[in-house]
Amino acid sequence: MATPDPRLQRLLGGLALAALRQRLRRHFERGGTAEGALLLGQLQPAEREALALLSGRPAKAARSLRLDLAELQARLQAAGIAGSLREALEHLDGPITDLVAERDAQQSTWLAMLSRTGRDPRLQAWLQAGTAAGLLKRLSRQDADAADILLSQAGKVLGRMPATGLPRSQLAAQVLGDAHALDAGRPVAALVLAAWRHGEAIRDMPAVDAGDGDFDDTRDEPLGPAADERARDIWARAGVLVNELARPVLVLNLPVPVDLDTVPWLRGEPAYLSLRWLLRAAPRWDVADRTVFVCENPNLLAIAAEQLGTRCAPLICTDGMPAAAQRTLLQQLVRSGARLRYHGDFDWAGLRIANHVLRHAGAAPWRMGMADYETAARAAAPARHTLTGSETEAVWDVQLAPAMRRHGLAIAEEAVAESLFNDLSLS
How far apart are the first and last CA of the chain? Predict the structure, then answer.
């Protein structure tokens, strides 16, 4: 760009007027024309003086000024300084970008990219959702070409799903050439999870906006929309293993699956089943129209094994908030026709866990009503365990939480073991 006219430099150049020039440039960046008036407020003395010289009007003490753009353009042309205010500003600070036209062009590029055909149907269905474009733009940093590459990669991954116990790192390496490409926080992983979760929602399965972050498995962790389902649980439902040996599910006397000759447990003995085994074996459980009991604490299952042994009804332990292995087994049992009944601690964390299991595993409460709590509270040992933590309500019994507030007493699941064993005993 040619060196600006020295007169223009004196009138509007310099560091002291840089903020004023930026305000004038924004008028044109936003699609403003050289016609009409431009109101400028909160002017500094040097800015008021410069505008007065440009417009040929005496400077006023007022901090605002209405600038007649057509009149100003005529003065600049008559003086031979510049053809217009926009031209003058470009002489001083470089070309002015038309942000409106640029935004329209970007929008057209995005629409063309999103309307392309031939993608995985699950990915295409998700792209029609209202939140899809926002997530895609965030992951691609507003770059339509980068977004197109991410969608192509996500489609390739979805083309291998559902899998049958395939480790996530192996899936990433085979499809994308990078064993970490589907790790938590990676863009392709976020898109795959979003598309898979959207497909589950269409099939009336529970779905939440979890993004792809995990939450801590402590018992006192309150559930919320983002913590309700973890990313690895969604991967597990798609047959993809993430940390498949962590937090196996503890079981006792599960019926032998109808499609397996051998199983990794003995009747009467507690056993751990890994997520890896559950997904790779994909057993069809012999539980149609049978009750399977579910407890919260490993100690209760251990006591049941000691006292009842082979006479104990099928029992599963969630070990606090269910992780991927626990959720996978519960879902497999429900699909095989089992009736799940759940019991946990009578404390606030226990109610949150119970709410989750009842909502997402389709279980029914097992001796978890207000009357059961009242009976246990009356029989409680002198050494009382006071309720602590954030309060919650029981979705299955609106009277339970008020009763717990009245007594202020937490009842551990092990404290009511004998009443539970009456239901568990098969003899």
Answer: 96
Q: What are the beta bridge partners of residue 316?
A: 251, 294
Distance CA 166, CA 232 (A): 13
Query: Which DSSP letter does residue 42 get?
Result: S
pLDDT in tens, 186-201: 999 999 999 998 888 7
3-class SS of residue 295? strand
Interior/surface letters 229-255, b for 16+ CB within 10 angstroms, e for the rest: bbbbbbbbbbbbbbbbeebbbbbbbbb
Domain positions in the chain = 6-97, 100-202, 243-424
Return the ∠ at Cα 219 (arms to 215 and 224), rounded to 5°.
Answer: 45
Which residues, other chains included, contact 123 with Cβ-Cβ below 8 Å and sequence gap of 6+? 151, 154, 155, 158, 191, 195
> Whole-angstrom Cα distance, residue 3 to residue 181?
51
Is residue 2 pLDDT above 80, yes or no?
A: no
Within 13 Å of residue 54, how many CA atoms lie on the same side as its CB? 31
CATH 3.40.1360.10 fits 243-424, yes or no: yes
Residue holding tokens 């069809």? 284
144-161 confidence digits (pLDDT tens)? 899 999 999 999 999 999
Sign of CA dihedral 185, 187, 190, 193: negative
**pLDDT tens-place string over residues 266-296:** 889 999 998 888 888 888 899 999 999 999 9
Residue 227 pLDDT? 32
- Residue labelled with tokens 């568990």: 424
